[in-house]
Amino acid sequence: MLDLINVSYDTQIPNNVGLSSDKRVLKALEKWHPGYINWWNDLIPRQFQDSLVYLRTAISVDPKGWAKFDYVRMPEYRWGILLAPQVEDRRIPSGEHAGQPAWQEVPGEYRNMLKRLIVIQGDTEPASVEQQRFLALTAPSLYDMRNLFQVNVEEGRHLWAMVYLLQKYFGADGREEADDLLRRSSGSEEAPRMLGAFNEATPDWLSFFMFTYFTDRDGKMQLESLAQSGFDPLSRTCRFMLTEEAHHMFVGETGVGRVIQRTCEAMKEAGIEDPYDIQAVRNLGVIDLPTIQKKLNLHYTLSLDLFGQEVSTNAANAFNAGIKGRYQETKIDDDHRLQNSTYPVVQMVDGKVVTVDVPALSAINMRLRDDYITDAAGGLKRWNAAIAKMGVPFELKLPHPGFHRHIGVFSSVRMTPDGGLVSTEEFERRRDEWLPSKADGDYIASLMVPCSEPGKYAGWIAPPRVGIDNKPGDFEYVQLHMA
Amino acid sequence: MAKVIDFQTDPSRYRHWKIRYEGAVAHLMMDVDEAGGLFEGYELKLNSYDLGVDIELADIVQRMRFEHPEVKAVVLQSGKERVFCAGANIRMLGGATHAHKVNFCKFTNETRNTFEVAGAESGQYYIAAVRGACAGGGYELALACDHIILTDDGSSSVALPEVPLLAVLPGTGGLTRVTDKRKVRRDHADVFCSIEEGIKGKRAKDWNLVDDVVPNTKFDELVAQRAREFAAKSGRPADAQGIALTALDRRIGEDGSLTYSSVEVEVDRAKRVGRVTVHGPKADEAPPADVAALHGQGASTWMLRVARELDDAILHLRNNELEVGVLVFRAQGDPALVAAHEAFLLDSRSDWLANEILLYWKRVLKRVDLTSRSLVALVEPGSCFAGPLAELLFAVDRSYMAEGDFEGDNRPVATITLTAGNFGPYPMSNDLTRLQTRFLGEPGKVEEARARIGEPLEAFDANELGLVTFCFDDIDWEDEVRIFLEERASFSPDAMTGMEANLRFPGPETMETRIFGRLTAWQNWIFQRPNAVGDTGALKRYGTGVRGEYDMKRV
Predict the structure, then answer these.
(1) Low-confidence ranges of chain B (pLDDT < 50)
(2) Which of B217, B542, B546 lies at the smallest CB-CB distance from A190?
(3) Could A180 and B154 be called an inter-chain contact, meaning their C-beta atoms sit closer than 8 Å?
(4) CA angle B223, B226, B232 (to 5 degrees)
(5) For chain B, where do the domains classified as CATH 3.90.226.10 start and end?
(6) Burial level of A365, CB count in 10 A (0-12/13-18/19+)?
(7) What is the ipTM of this complex?
(8) How far apart (Å, rounded) are the C-alpha atoms in residues B308 and B385?
(9) CATH architecture classification, B14-233
């Protein structure tokens, strides 16, 4: 009998989808595999490829015991195809087919829509690895380096997950799309990644933490909505990916938290009371809180752009078709069809921000973005609590959703982080007050010196409270290959 | 009175296009202002267009010919990131009346045709440089260009998603140009036209949906190279000065009447008849003495002035006077002068401006052919149906000619004058002259007519030669004409449109006739069907997220 809980290692590709008896897909994946390995090898600097990294690998999709920690060379990481266990008699949760049995095969009429969603999701996974490719060279500790690599290999595995769906369910077109996922590349002029935020640079570790906190959280919300898909294999894939995504957000939240903690500690030690005395704070070799706010402004707003247009036909079509749902669809108490309900959406009318009730179906993106904003606010609360506890008079804020936007109703206006309308000239004049300037970037870059002694941390970041897999503080998370 | 749709614009008023002139190459950027829709109720997202956007494009294409003789290649690009053009705005189409949709499609088709032939007939080549999504009407814009370059960035594609997405057809020549112009194999075309996301990269080239697929980093370089190559093919003069297409001298009356310098339109809404009178050159308005004089006159020279006025009048009537079912053409003036003005241009055809004016006449006359109203010409005493104006006689559905003297009318007896112009320079969309089309079954009659070039032909001769439908004398004229017009205006407009469109274009099919006949007719049928435009049809439901419901019976 097929074991759908434990991962099978009987082929080159670990899986719980019975790959060894599905020769067609196995063949396709084996054909894709070398291209993937090349991509990986070209991406990660050589010395790290040969290093032993303390990574967790999935051995089961059972929520209780799916992860196993051990030293692995990254190119030998067991990337695989892992789907959450099938829910018996699962029903399509939303849209016009709500209540019908979930699809186990792709419905022909939605084939293209499904394929496009999977391709867009798949395109983001390798993109972040590309964006973060040089960060290991400046890791503030072996602990952080290990977390970076864990995030990287899991993003790589998420790519595998999407590629499996494309190759299993979408025939020759799917195989072509799978190849193109390796052809496009973040920031490339030749063939850029599909979404804007995934072509932005991740120049330093604070950006990495902000990215994992804000942008990976967008990824989480998108996965949450795809986990509600009526197409069961997609739903199961995304449910399993979400268990991994949680770690990425953990890296982001604790990472930013540790930067804040170190800054506040250094200020206290030096007796600096004014968080806005930027030069004094910087003289201590830590990142001042106003600059952290600017980084937050940048990554948060780029991530909001990823939710697309507030009123969207594509999102409406996908929801109505049952291809994707809302965040925690099954827990929402309504008819799950939305053909007669409305949802409030911000619009610009005659230069003013107003809220308009629009047909709920067309506001699916807006609703997911609202859920995202609520979700993203949680970490801020904890960061601010830590700042307050250390007695520093400063509060981090999420800027107004109209600030620094390139997509949606706000893309045509310029706003301050407080939501005040300003002219383009004024915005450009004051840009450096709100967004990281070149000088800010240079300063942060100057702090980015590697620290690779076990148990030691760069001076701008505090050590974590607990180690990975409960390892002690001086644990050697990465055994660097020094050839 | 409802808002008048005005087809006149000028560069100072453009909202959706930007142009940069660099010697022989013009860079035309489509950068549609989302908030700049012609009507309320939709936003022009993703470089989608409505009639307003197309009116600007038509103006640009026209000015490119006359104001920029130095331009040999026009590169059409998007001013927006990641999207070339998403095609006609769907919400606009969903909310538009059937008549507006049809008029919109006709006008956009005419504009596509205009720049499509600019290369071959006038040495002004259009190159589509496609980056980002190029879908539906967006791809149809590219299809009408001489050359399509697509970037190979892994996501840019060309697509005709109308069928799967909207349950309508790519109605601006899309289906026809794919098979007839680009000669895409019909099974490939079937695949291409059924997939929403379109085709990108190498396959787009392999299937001949585009001419070049190029790495993104080499895109600008190749575009510049192709522009140079096309410019090198062109015979346009490098150092010529353009003429300014100055604002038309036009007054629009409350009663719908239009008054131009040489064209008058009287609208009788009660009788549903529009009367278009073209005035020949004034007695002191001799043809230009030479080419320099022609350039000096510029937009005011009679041949060009009248063409622009007639063109605007036709467009105005089509879009603003929907219930005027019959258009009656008259021409008053000295036929010898009309013939002389035309002869000057025909003799000076090596000059770019003379050539452009004649080519413009060809387009205006095609616009008349394609006007879905009953067209009638009255050859009355004092008429100047000569040369280009005589073409109107052969464009209309019926013509009536006055025979002999009319009591109390001191104007000269009605005549028709054929010129060399009636035997070549103004072909119809079936690629035949109007006389060849008229005498499809009796080619000898064309030669018989040719032998009479330059002769003022009175009713008897005109009738013998088959140039008019009926001749009536003073006694019968008034009643016959009145009864005919009353009868005509009373028929079902749908049946009239269908009948006339079938009878006007006998003979061989061309890509153009297939676009205006087959494609348009099918599209207009689909535009009426509940599967597209019913309350639960795909076009109506587009954007709501709810799918269209189809009546699955094949008809």
Answers:
(1) 1
(2) B217
(3) yes
(4) 140
(5) 14-233, 253-502
(6) buried
(7) 0.75
(8) 18
(9) Alpha-Beta Complex (3.90)
CATH for B253-502, options being 3.90.870.10, 2.60.120.10, 3.90.226.10, 3.40.50.2000: 3.90.226.10
* B545 closest CB neighbour out of A116, A192, A362: A362
C-alpha A475/C-alpha A468 separation (Å) is 9
The chain B residue lying nearest A109, using CA atoms, is: B164
Name the β-bridge partners of A359: A342
Residue B51: which H helix or E strand, with range?
Answer: helix B51-67
pLDDT in tens, A306-349: 999 999 989 999 999 999 999 999 999 999 999 999 999 998 88
Q: Say what the alpha-carbon torsion angle A447, A449, A454, A455 is, to the nearest 10 degrees.
A: -10
Output the pLDDT for position A1. Answer: 41
Q: How many CA atoms lie within 13 Å of A278's alpha carbon, on the beta-carbon side?
A: 11
How many C-beta atoms lie closer than 10 Å to residue B538's C-beta? Answer: 23
Reduced to 3 states, what is the DSSP secondary structure of residue A422?
A: strand
DSSP-derived 3-state class of residue B225: helix
Domains defined along chain A, listed by start: 19-479 (1.10.620.20)
For chains A and B, count residue pairs whose Cβ atoms are closer than 8 Å: 59
Contact B217 A412 (CB under 8 A): no
Tell me if residue B544 falls in helix, strand or coil.
Answer: coil
- C-beta separation of B19 from B26 below 8 A: yes
The one-character DSSP state at B378 is E
> How many angstroms separate the CA atoms of A370 and B379, rounded?
71
* B194 in reach of chain A (CB within 8 A): no
With a CB cutoff of 8 Å and minimum separation 6, the contacts of B530 are: B536, B537, B551
Say yes or no for a CB contact (<8 Å) between A364 and B196: no
Q: CA-nearest residue of chain B to A341?
A: B544
